[in-house]
Design a protein that fits this description.
The protein is of the alpha+beta class. The chain folds into three domains: 199 residues, Aldehyde Ferredoxin Oxidoreductase,  A, domain 1 (4-Layer Sandwich), CATH 3.60.9.10; 155 residues, Orthogonal Bundle (Aldehyde Ferredoxin Oxidoreductase Protein, subunit A, domain 2), CATH 1.10.569; 171 residues, Aldehyde Ferredoxin Oxidoreductase Protein, subunit A, domain 3. The chain is built from 24 helices and 17 strands. A hairpin with a 2-residue loop joins strand 7 and strand 8.
Length: 598
């Protein structure tokens, strides 16, 4: 059978208790593809300027792409919403079995648009291209317990953190093994009193053309540099790489190297793991035994919960990651929140009974943040609640600015950008806040060395952001997506949908990135929002980048060059000419400010 033309969405209104099928407006699929791009278009169209992320009117979208269920590697889906952590656009991705089952259950639908707020906790069941709203008997249970309650379906759900409204709560799938993690998608889901989405569909069956394409791209990936890298050590390789170049943020961003790297890096993972996530061509990350079951560790865990918290045992890192997974906490923001509390205690700003290297204490603080219960923790009044709202909220309450870096209120992952102007620019201009996935020029910059220029930086950051805007609208696995960089998936799209030229797809990526900038501009974001956090202006104390910091004047010059390359004005806002050139003139509303030309 061929791929279904996904030209509808399910519109769910939890306030009214209704589920309706809606056709995707004409031209939207061609101009925005699916996933990230389509979600951005719906968000800009349907949200009023300034809507509170925890208002019932906020939209929570679960979206696929036109190639979902057929692409090599793990299938993925994306959650798109207005972030309660940052107040900006949010797209957060997750893989595993749930996206495949969702793709089968949705049939000709590209996704689910959830608005409103239920009076009582509910779940949403998707089957045969339709949805049903049912009471949520699992409210109060963690992500693993919730998944086990529906053995006949695949489940995406929130844990206690989402129910409580922690600002960086995740949406977990596959029994907590996968998470749409960053930015608080689970927070919005909890505010809507939506405990779970249960997908009861069989993964799509590819026709012979799609099957042959998948097999060829999987073979290509095995021989690709990224495929070899993933097969060797998965994302744990990033831990050792960051340490080697002095960019592994350690003990609350106080150092760039972790003395116990051998205890949490790829060598330790290889020895301690029970296996890999998958036995196929794309093996995934390492699987570990934890207290209440297996846990799959990705690079963010040893970086943020290991080096970031001074925890020097990979089994302890696995224990902390397992807690975050079951509670539904984003490991990056949770780890940074605890690191902030430890440093704030040292600075005399708060009382926090946890110290660096104290894995048991960190675990107890994670439990307290997610549940609000902390009878045995002698913390400052209000500290746990402040940490649950994020590092910026805690900093504002206790005057702890500059201890742990954030961009647009999202904590940075453990790639310290002080030795990489490109990584600093990528963080600053990320559309969802401090994110290393939009662009990772640090890897190229480290290899090129002193010959790397500002022009190289801008070209790399703009190029990667644009390409990933396309690939994330197709919703492909991040790493396997490296095999699509040359034609941006045009060969696949020709097999399931329509012909696109490479230039046309680049234009689609630019359109999506600029549309999201327009959304964020309408919410008050501009050049000032692309600031570097204070810790990045201080010198790295040790390692290969010792003494380095981000020099403000050259950074501002790189930001100017970035805005020029994007066709945005010096204030960081898209100009009228760029908006018209990208075909967004008929999309623009009167509430969105535009930039002045240079």
């Amino acid at each position: 059978m061929g791929a279904p033309r996904r030209d509808h969405v399910l519109a769910v209104d939890l306030s009214a208790g209704t589920v309706e099928r809606e056709p995707i407006p004409e031209g939207w699929r061609e101009r925005y593809l699916g996933g990230k791009g389509l979600g951005a278009r719906y968000l800009y169209e349907r949200l009023e300027a300034g809507v509170d992320p925890l208002d019932p009117d906020n939209l929570l979208a679960f979206l696929l792409g036109p190639l979902s269920g057929y692409l090599p590697g793990q299938s993925r889906y994306v959650i798109v919403t207005k972030s309660p952590l940052t107040g900006a656009f949010l797209d957060s991705y997750s893989g595993g079995q749930f996206p495949d089952r969702l793709a089968g259950a949705l049939e000709d639908c590209m996704g689910v648009l959830v608005s409103g707020r239920a009076d009582e906790p509910v779940r949403l069941e998707i089957e045969d291209g339709d949805g049903r709203i049912r009471p949520a008997e699992t409210w109060g249970q963690d992500t693993v317990e919730t998944a086990r309650a529906f053995p006949d379906g695949a489940v995406a759900c929130i844990g206690p953190a989402g129910e409580r409204g922690v600002g960086y709560a995740t949406v977990a799938s596959d029994g907590g093994e996968h998470h749409a993690g960053r930015g608080g998608g689970g927070t919005v889901m909890g505010d809507k009193r939506l405990k779970a989405v249960v997908a009861r569909g069989e993964p799509p069956t590819p026709d012979p053309v799609l099957k042959a394409l998948r097999e060829r791209y999987e073979r290509d990936y095995v021989e690709h540099d990224t495929g070899r890298w993933q097969a060797a050590g998965g994302t744990f390789e990033s831990v050792d790489f960051a340490h080697e170049i002095g960019a592994l943020a350690t003990e609350g961003w106080q150092r760039g190297r972790f003395e116990a790297i051998d205890e949490i890096g790829v060598e330790a993972a290889t020895e301690a793991a029970t296996g890999r996530e998958d036995d196929g061509a794309v093996p995934g990350d390492f699987r570990f035994e934890a207290e209440t079951g297996d846990v799959v560790l990705r690079g963010a865990a040893p970086m943020t919960l290991g080096a970031g918290l001074g925890v020097d045992d990979v089994d302890d890192v696995a224990m902390l990651a397992e807690r975050c997974d079951r509670l539904g906490l984003d490991v990056i923001d949770a780890g940074n929140a605890v690191a902030w509390a430890i440093r704030a205690d040292s600075a005399g700003l708060v009382d926090c009974p946890v110290d660096f290297g104290d894995a048991a204490g960190a675990r107890a603080l994670f439990e307290a943040i997610a549940t609000g219960r902390h009878p045995d923790m002698a913390c400052s009044d209000g500290l746990v609640d402040a940490l649950a709202a994020g590092v910026d909220a805690a900093s504002d309450r206790y005057a702890g600015e500059g201890l742990v870096p954030t961009v647009k209120s999202m904590s940075l992952p453990a790639y310290d950008p002080r030795g990489s102007t490109g990584m600093a620019l990528a963080y600053a201009t990320s559309d969802r806040g401090g994110c290393h996935r939009r662009a990772r020029p640090i890897e190229i910059e480290a290899a090129v060395g002193p010959e790397w220029t500002v022009a190289d930086t801008v070209r790399a950051v703009v190029g990667e952001q644009t390409v990933r805007s396309v690939l994330w609208s197709l919703v492909i696995d991040d790493f396997v997506g490296e095999t699509l960089w040359e034609d941006l998936g045009s060969e696949w799209l020709a097999a399931v949908d329509r012909d696109y030229g490479n230039d046309e797809l680049v234009r689609v990526g630019d359109r999506i990135w600029t549309l999201i900038r327009l959304f964020n501009a309408r919410e008050g974001f501009d050049r000032e929002s692309d600031r570097l956090p204070e810790p990045m202006l201080e010198a790295v104390p040790d390692g290969p980048t010792a003494g380095e910091s981000i020099d403000v004047e050259p950074f501002e010059g790189a930001l100017d060059a970035y805005y020029r390359a994007r066709g945005w004005g010096p204030d960081g806002l898209p100009t009228r000419g760029t908006v018209e050139d990208l075909g967004l003139g008929d999309v623009l509303d009167d509430e969105t400010p535009l930039g002045d030309p240079w």
